[in-house]
Structure formats: structure tokens, C-alpha cells
Automatic annotation (TrEMBL):
InterPro entries, alphabetized: HotDog_dom_sf, MaoC-like_dom
Annotated coiled-coil segments of the chain: none
Species this protein is from: Paraburkholderia acidisoli
PANTHER family the UniProt entry points to: (3R)-HYDROXYACYL-ACP DEHYDRATASE SUBUNIT HADB, 3-HYDROXYACYL-THIOESTER DEHYDRATASE HTDX-RELATED
Protein name: Dehydratase
SUPFAM superfamilies named among the record's database cross-references: Thioesterase/thiol ester dehydrase-isomerase
TM ranges: none
Positions of the MaoC-like domain: 23-115
Pfam families, per the entry: MaoC_dehydratas
Domain of life: Bacteria
Amino acid sequence: MTSLNFDTIQLGDTLPPLALPAVDRTMLALFAGASGDHNAVHIDIDYARRAGMPDVFAHGMLSMAWLGRLLTQWVDQRELRQFGVRFVGITQLGHRIVCTGRVVDKFEADGERRVRLEIQTANQYGETRVVGDAVVAL
């Protein structure tokens, strides 16, 4: 996390990217335990195949958690005012995800100086998996 100044932040500025290790079965099992989301499509290959998938795949909320980490490595979590995402693709086993963000607006609200960010995850092929936005106070 760095010290940021509203006056020096410019539209188009980017957050330091967050690169993650390849998604594997251990990661999915650990996230299932930590989150309480034990949906079999994320941890049981036979179940996933019966559901028409080639294999298990990452929880959508795992991707959102990674985007949360992107944000909180940029600003203190207490400065987060809004955070939302839309899932646009499945994160498969073996995907190496990179989370990115950029400043798209600067404004004042409720007596605070804030910036709006566009955020996303993409795999090693450049395919977007999750898109979203966030508002942080600076």
C-alpha cells in the first residue's frame, strides 16, 4: 500500500498489477474451506463433468477476493467506499490471473475526495474473466 494524493492522481493512472500463481486444485480446496463454499463443481471433477464442464474451475468469489487484494494493496481497506464485479468468463485450472485497475474518475462526495476505478482479472491469454469498479476515498 502506498501513500496517495488526490491532487496528483490522474485519470488513466494504473494500479500496480497483482499477478497470481496458476489456479490449481489445492487453491480451490483451500478457498472452499476458507469461504465455506463447498459447491462440488469447484472441487469434484466427476461432479463438474456431469455438469458439462471439462474439469473443476475457480469460484467467482475467489476472483473477487483477488480484486479486493489489488485494491487493498493500493489503499487502506478503510478507504474503500464501493466495490462490485460482474463475472464474464470462467477461470479454469491452470489459468494465471493478473488483476489490474485504472483511475476513470475523480470527484467529491460526502465531504471526501474520491476516485472511481475500473478493475478486472484476465488470464495469461489476455481473456477477461471478471470486470468491476470500485470507489476509494483519498
